[in-house]
From TrEMBL:
InterPro entries: MFS, MFS_dom, MFS_trans_sf. The keyword Lyase does not apply. GO terms for molecular function: transmembrane transporter activity. This is MFS family permease. It comes from the Bacteria. Keywords: Membrane, Transmembrane, Transmembrane helix, Transport. It holds the Pfam family MFS_1. The chain crosses the membrane at residues 7-23, 43-63, 75-92, 104-125, 132-155, 161-180, 200-217, 229-247, 268-291, 303-324, 331-350, 356-378, 399-420, 455-475. Residues 1-477 form the Major facilitator superfamily (MFS) profile domain. GO terms for cellular component: plasma membrane. Its main location: membrane.
Length: 565
């Protein structure tokens, strides 16, 4: 059976990125299991998650560069081999240090593949079907994170955490095998007349930023906010982040071109994606906690309840692909924010003693709501500027988003512990005054429930912020569309002979008759193709990128409207 290339590229993209995202979310929820396995209750237990995500963020800008140097297939196989080595090291690990080394290889492999595969995925689809790429991005990538949540729940219930890495290893092997069918190295053979200098300063500053962030989070996990090392790390992170921003703003060939996300739509999109992710983390922590501490469901029932996560993924993947071009990222963000807000308001006043149906519907609604904000944020940023600079703009967006995602779990855990401790003291005082009978039996459960309600309240506030940002994005317009369907008249082109088709392709537009010019392909795909070319070439100057205009794109849209009339 022949598989169309865009579906093959979609499969490779999910196999390259999905396992890394799956492990990032699953390992977050099984720290207690790992602590018991390695007999280590110290702050070091955060290292597998932290090192994996930080190395992931650091390597994102290098994927396009490697693709240009050695070709797409070699880059893909290299990234998957690194991930496979990391999985094997993690399986064989008997300590957090060993697992941290394995997670470094996994994060590196996933980071190299991310910004190579996303542009290839989008551009591999025919232009009239390009909205299906969003279906893969949401269903495959975001869905992989949700699969990680589900697998983390299974590990917490039944043990056998090494199975997560066996699954990841098998998926990486499949990716290597399929890459020889769908990828080539032709692109690496292209010769370029010029070579932009490599951004060594950017690499050095990126390393310092990620190193200080890692140092800060480790010490925060160890000693809390009162530690001098934490504040040294925070100050160092801010200073080097400022240096990185200034350097990348002025360097001719930056690894992370911050200039490209300085306009309104990309900046709003980044905030929507990041804040929506934080809101999901808090709400999911609240729902999982209430399900565990206050409910009377057994392990089997809890597994079925988590099916709601997958229902949410299916809903949001399909609706995002259908609605994005029709309503734009602003409306999608508004829909997602309203859904998240509704879920949080509902659970602000409910404890864990709720029906299974309510838990299932809440999980599904939460995942769907956050999925809409992810679609609005990522695609709004990607298509929120000139299309030739799509790839470097997305490198910047993904670096920021993934770096923030490394911080969220640690901060959430520290805040939860602090709020829980305060609530425990309050409940203890009230319980001693009211009645000493059965005092200790419900003390911790009640404190946890109050803490989860607090997190729901805070998440609700964040969803209101996302709602405001989405409305502001709506005011900036829909931006570029993903897919453009051909006009009926264009279908007659299939009847033209091969000679006529080649003649039309070889003849410049300005030399054709007006009728021929109008009957050209529905929408000129030049910007998308230019983006693909620049994806494999040294990145142009940020100053030039900023002044690129999509006049050809808009003229093509106007031409289509004229045809329709």
């Amino acid at each position: 059976m022949k598989i169309e290339k865009h579906w093959g590229i979609s499969l490779l993209a999910v196999l390259a990125i999905g396992p890394g995202l799956m492990l990032n979310t699953s390992l977050n929820s099984i720290r207690e299991i790992l602590q018991q396995t390695f007999n280590d209750q110290s702050y070091i237990s955060i290292t597998p998650v932290l090192i994996g995500v930080i190395s992931f963020a650091f390597c994102i800008p290098f994927g396009p560069i490697l693709r240009h140097k050695i070709g797409e297939r070699r880059t893909y196989v290299l990234s998957m081999c690194l991930f496979l080595i990391g999985a094997i090291v993690s399986i064989a690990s008997n300590s957090f240090l060993g697992m941290g080394i394995g997670r470094f290889f996994q994060g590196t492999g996933t980071g190299l593949a991310l910004m190579m595969m996303i542009p290839m995925l989008v551009l591999s689809f025919p232009i009239q079907k390009r909205n299906l790429a969003l279906l893969i991005l949401i269903g495959g990538f975001y869905g992989s994170s949700v699969v990680g949540i589900f697998l983390g729940m299974l590990v917490n219930s039944y043990g056998h955490w090494r199975g997560l890495f066996y699954i990841a290893a098998v998926l990486s092997l499949l990716g290597i095998c399929f890459s020889y069918k769908f990828l080539t190295n032709d692109h690496a053979k292209q010769q370029h007349k010029y070579h932009e200098p490599f951004d060594i300063i950017g690499v050095a500053l990126m390393f310092m930023v990620t190193a200080f962030i890692t140092f800060t989070l480790l010490n925060l996990q160890k000693s809390g906010w009162t530690s001098t090392y934490v504040w040294i790390g925070i100050v160092g992170s801010i200073i080097f982040l400022c240096f990185l921003f200034i350097a990348e703003w002025h360097i001719k060939n930056p690894l992370i071109p911050f200039r490209l996300v300085a306009s309104r739509k990309p900046a709003l999109a980044i905030l929507i994606a990041v804040i929506g992710n934080i809101s999901m983390s808090l709400t999911l922590l609240s729902l999982q906690g209430l399900l565990k501490s206050g409910s009377s469901f057994d392990k089997g029932d809890i597994s079925l309840i988590y099916i709601g996560l997958f229902a949410g993924i299916v809903i949001v993947a399909i609706l995002s692909a259908v609605l994005y071009d029709k309503v734009g990222p602003g409306v999608l963000g508004i829909i997602g924010a309203v859904i998240i807000m509704g879920v949080n308001i509902q659970w602000m006043y409910l404890d864990g003693h709720a029906s299974a149906f309510l838990f299932v519907s809440s999980f599904a609604a939460l995942i769907a709501g956050v999925g809409f904000t992810v679609a609005a944020g990522l695609m709004g940023a990607a298509l929120g500027g000139p299309l030739p600079s799509l790839v470097p703009r997305m490198v910047t967006v993904q670096f920021i988003r993934v770096t923030v995602s490394a911080v969220i779990p640690v901060i959430s855990g520290i805040v939860f512990a602090k709020v829980y401790k305060d609530n425990l003291m309050t409940v203890s005082a009230e319980g001693q005054v009211a009645s000493k009978e059965n005092f200790t039996q419900h003390l911790h459960v009640k404190s946890e429930i109050i803490t989860y309600h607090t997190f729901s309240t805070f998440s609700c506030v964040l969803s209101i912020v996302v709602l405001i940002l989405s409305f502001l994005m709506f005011l900036t317009g829909k931006g570029h569309k993903l897919a453009h369907k051909p006009h009926d008249k264009e279908k007659n082109k299939e009847k033209l002979s091969i000679e006529e088709v080649h003649l039309k392709k070889d003849t410049p537009v300005f030399e054709r008759s007006p009728k021929e010019a109008v009957s050209n392909q529905v929408i000129g795909d030049s910007e998308y193709r230019e983006a693909l070319k620049k994806f494999g070439q040294p990145k142009p100057s940020p100053d030039k990128m900023l002044h690129m205009r999509d006049q050809e794109y808009r003229k093509a849209l106007k031409r289509m409207k004229d045809i329709g009339q």
